[in-house]
Write the structure tokens for this entry.
Amino acid sequence: MIFKQIFDLRDMAIKINIYNQKAESVGEMNLADKIFGVPANRNLIHQAVVAQMANRRQVLANTKDRSEVRGGGKKPWAQKGTGRARVGSSRSPIWKGGGVTFGPLKERNFTKNINKKMKQKAIFMALSDKVAANNFVVLDKLEVEDYKTKVFVGILAGLGKFFSKAAPSEKTKVWNDKKAKKSILIINDSKDEKIKYSGRNIAGVKIINLENINVVDLLKYKNLIATVQAIKNLEKIYVKN
């Protein structure tokens, strides 16, 4: 009986309000507990973040060793009789313009591997944290009629009442709160050019599609906005009946 109760609790859904772009409540929906009710594991999240950042890293620094430096094929002077130290090539690391000893090389590999299920679970933990901290807003849909940043800022201003210090004021429509920078991540259900270009110049806002969801962005931005369809697609992919 006890095991059955635990199993039922795991399958419980989390209720959350749905809002329109005018910040008006238009209904409720259930969030899958397997995605939005996962307890945090700091070690796993840290491992996922380190792996993602390492895989993003580009190898920029590169030096040449003595075999790659141009010139130096001829012996600078005779081995004996000059009174100077013997030397075989001007490409020697002790010469100016010679090779570099133990310098950074472009062949360095910073990539780190992480299990696919571990990566997914880290994302679920980050999503669960947004829900638990009340930093998650669900929109029925996200669309604009034209390429207008001002309109998009107005939408965020209306939703700002759900976030503490996260959106511009409704009067000025200006993002003037320094503490609000890098604070809103928006997950849209599909690629929308109007949404993309209307919101890309707003400081502190990043718009991604469902296929680009990642643990670094979820942790970097304090607040999360997602459409109903994006959540349904996410649950369709990861929640197996």
